[in-house]
UniProtKB/TrEMBL annotation:
This is Acireductone dioxygenase. It comes from Leptonema illini DSM 21528. Belongs to the acireductone dioxygenase (ARD) family. It comes from the Bacteria. Catalyzes 2 different reactions between oxygene and the acireductone 1,2-dihydroxy-3-keto-5-methylthiopentene (DHK-MTPene) depending upon the metal bound in the active site. Fe-containing acireductone dioxygenase (Fe-ARD) produces formate and 2-keto-4-methylthiobutyrate (KMTB), the alpha-ketoacid precursor of methionine in the methionine recycle pathway. Ni-containing acireductone dioxygenase (Ni-ARD) produces methylthiopropionate, carbon monoxide and formate, and does not lie on the methionine recycle pathway. Pfam families: ARD (PF03079). Its EC number is 1.13.11.54, 1.13.11.53. Keywords: Amino-acid biosynthesis, Dioxygenase, Iron, Metal-binding, Methionine biosynthesis, Nickel, Oxidoreductase. Ni(2+) binds at H96, H98, E102, H140. Gene3D superfamilies: Jelly Rolls (2.60.120.10).
Amino acid sequence: MSLLRIYPVNSADSYTEMSDFDEIRAYLWKKGVLFERWQAGAQLAKTATPEEVLAAYRPSIEKLKAERGFRTEDVVAIHAGLPNHAEMRQKFLNEHTHTDDEARFFVDGSGLFYINTGAEIIALLCTKGDLVNVPAGTKHWFDMGAEPFFQCVRVFTDPAGWVGHFTGSTITSQYPLRDEYPAFAG
């Protein structure tokens, strides 16, 4: 189940929470973030190859590419069995931007995006079936948790646009990690 928490900037002491999909989608839309629910019913192994994942969701991927101007796609799959998962987690826990939109379709598993709008911090738990598109230039970070598992299709206009430009901000240390949220642990 998707979940959204909205914090004031520089304070994790209070927040507003939403769990209704339509409310989450409407709120994010006002912030320029696309959030949709796609069918993620393909029967894929947890160890499915990128080619198998892309083949299973080809019609949806092509539709998104046509609608949003994306030109290419890949698959990112992270799980706790990967030897470098802790380093990968640490890298994306730092606030950064991209010169391209960050669009991810969660085929399986989950991950937590934090979006810094300047006025608030939005924590968005994405789960199986969620598509999120964080606009280019948006400050954000991503927490996959200490024991990660997710498979995502990523789409973009230019692979170079996915290079993270780190802000150097320490704001991320002011907010709870994914594993510190009981409701986000699933």
